[in-house]
Amino acid sequence: MEIIIRPSPEECASIGGRIIANLIKGKPDAVLGLATGSTPMPLYCELARMHEDEGLSFSEITTFNLDEYIGLSGDHPCSYQYFMNKELFSRIDIRADSTHIPNGEADDIESECLGYEQAIRSSGGIDLQVLGIGSDGHIGFNEPGSSLASRTRIKTLTGKTIEDNARFFDNLNQVPRHCITMGVGTIMDSVSLILYAFGERKADIISKAVEGPVSAMVPASILQLHPRVRVIVDEAAASKLTNIDYYKEVYVNKPDWQE
Q: Is 67 a catalytic residue?
């Protein structure tokens, strides 16, 4: 696990943008796993900028999103389909049929989940998965207590997650109680991972996920067992890490071939 600490979300996004750009340049038909919410927005702005200013093309890539609310149509302003179209897909040259988001309006949710898993496998698997982290340690919508071997499935959201996400809705009662999410096992199958976190309110959970024991009660802690994961955080989110000085020293003194 590589811990990268930078002063601002924008600088963190720049690092992630370069990582993704290098992946696409080396493998134009790469498969990306994407996240939603406020955390990845600086990264998506950076990718759109790189497409516009540097000619980075997404025309051959395939994407799979982590999750979607059950019961929201794709054109609902709070759906993740709407979010992705607005924040990224409409700003780059990706083909619409190469983007995949779980269908929260499917008649048969179980079949939708099984089909989503199959689609990921048929694509060759995810080369790089972008993640955020919930204040309770969830990744995707894998809430505390989720199986660390879980696959794409329906989940009931905790009260804490509903409260955290209420800011995107008019009121708390509008937040859906169920979702489809990639499982922890699905996420861990990715070749590489980037986990972003910003702000002081994420400091406690980043400390637990990075330096605490691996536990289903902090689902993000499973990332400690992945061979290729980067945790990219701003100073505020890193503020409670015990080994913060060491992580900074390692990053500054990386060998040139690791840059």
A: yes
